[in-house]
Amino acid sequence: MSTAVRNDDSGLRAAPKGGSGLRKQSKADASRERVLEAAAKTFSERGYAGTTMRDIARAADLQAGSLYYHYPSKELLIEAVIDKGIHNITNAVVNTIATLPPSTSYADRVRAAIQAHLHALLTYSAFASASRHLLAQVPVEVRRKHVLRREAYEEFWLGLLQSSQAAGETRDGVDLRLARTFILGGLNSALDWYRPEGKSIEELADQFAMMVEGGILIDRPD
Amino acid sequence: MSTAVRNDDSGLRAAPKGGSGLRKQSKADASRERVLEAAAKTFSERGYAGTTMRDIARAADLQAGSLYYHYPSKELLIEAVIDKGIHNITNAVVNTIATLPPSTSYADRVRAAIQAHLHALLTYSAFASASRHLLAQVPVEVRRKHVLRREAYEEFWLGLLQSSQAAGETRDGVDLRLARTFILGGLNSALDWYRPEGKSIEELADQFAMMVEGGILIDRPD
DNA sequence: GTCTATATTTTGATAGAC
DNA sequence: GTCTATCAAAATATAGAC
């Protein structure tokens, strides 16, 4: 019953300093990564202004001053976090859909998208949470850029639903834009209540897909 | 098609200072109210730590020092905002359901609850937004109390769905707790994208009810 | 790369005049 | 009730030793 295609790709890999194309993954990169993870966790828990550079430093096992070797300011740090939060999900979903066999029904495509979205959301939950809840609190320029990226992702979902409609697989009378926000809103709410001790992400996805199909897609004969 | 029962009640009316039961609604109360509105708006836009007392004062047309005549601290101010945000919605929904004729079907009850929830959410959106997005950023004691209130509200919804199930009006195989979070997550997401220029709240509610019924409740003959 | 100062600015809150 | 200072604490970011 579950459609288990998936494809992670965080995007955003820092280029090596040198100039030639050779990868030189080393200590600095590892620290930078640790700082970013610490920032995501702390920002998502306390908000943008509520998080101090000292908080992040403590979570990354560093002193506050040392953060500035890796990121030049608090603003660019939250930007990197939000960026990754959006990319994680977008890449996972887009890649998953791209990998499906061309003959896949739209109901199954939507099901796979739900699966991929939920999986990325809950696997990188600190990044996802930051990019969902903190956009409003962030400096305007950062916000503007990422609102556009989010809209692009939402547009991808709309396309999915529109194709589904064109194929006669959606229920009559449903406003596809509203259906899209309803679906994404329901999925994203998992950030607020999901606990790994409970149902697995796959079970969650199956349940959600079932509700979405029954409500938005026409019942189809098994 | 729309179930237009509704019942607003903000709760939270400050008692008059005097001691006897006589209402003395006057200048202080008006200012206090203005401060609360300003706080809700500013907190919801910039987060808890991101909002300064000076920001709130400006939005309320006062000087920063003057706020402390009405509220003793920033912490009690956000608490009042969050409190009102939760009460607005809970009261609206509970009162709406209580007012329905006993013979009302569960599908219609859910539809009325969706209508009332959406209406309260979007009418007092600054308060609702603060109590939804800022809980994590608020001092622990405030948070603990309001998490309980939110859970009580969610429990009310679960009861609604369970009664529906007992009456044979829900679709087989659906996990009611998940259905509840999915519904509320989808509805609450309207905070992020609803614009008064577009569809009316009633139209929105009808669309959402239709999706929920088709997905979660058994299709019923018209 | 990471540390230990430290400057500069901003914040929540108070005091006292009106 | 609201204003104008002002205090004390905390924050971002920088400088320079190691």
UniProtKB/TrEMBL annotation, chains A, B:
Pfam families: TetR_C_24, TetR_N. Residues 1-11 have a biased composition (Basic and acidic residues). GO terms for molecular function: DNA-binding transcription factor activity; transcription cis-regulatory region binding. Residues 1-31 are annotated as: Disordered. This is TetR/AcrR family transcriptional regulator. Signal peptide: none annotated. Residues 52-71 bind DNA. The keyword Kinase does not apply. Keywords: DNA-binding, Transcription, Transcription regulation. Residues 29-89 form the HTH tetR-type domain. The keyword Transcription applies. It comes from the Bacteria.
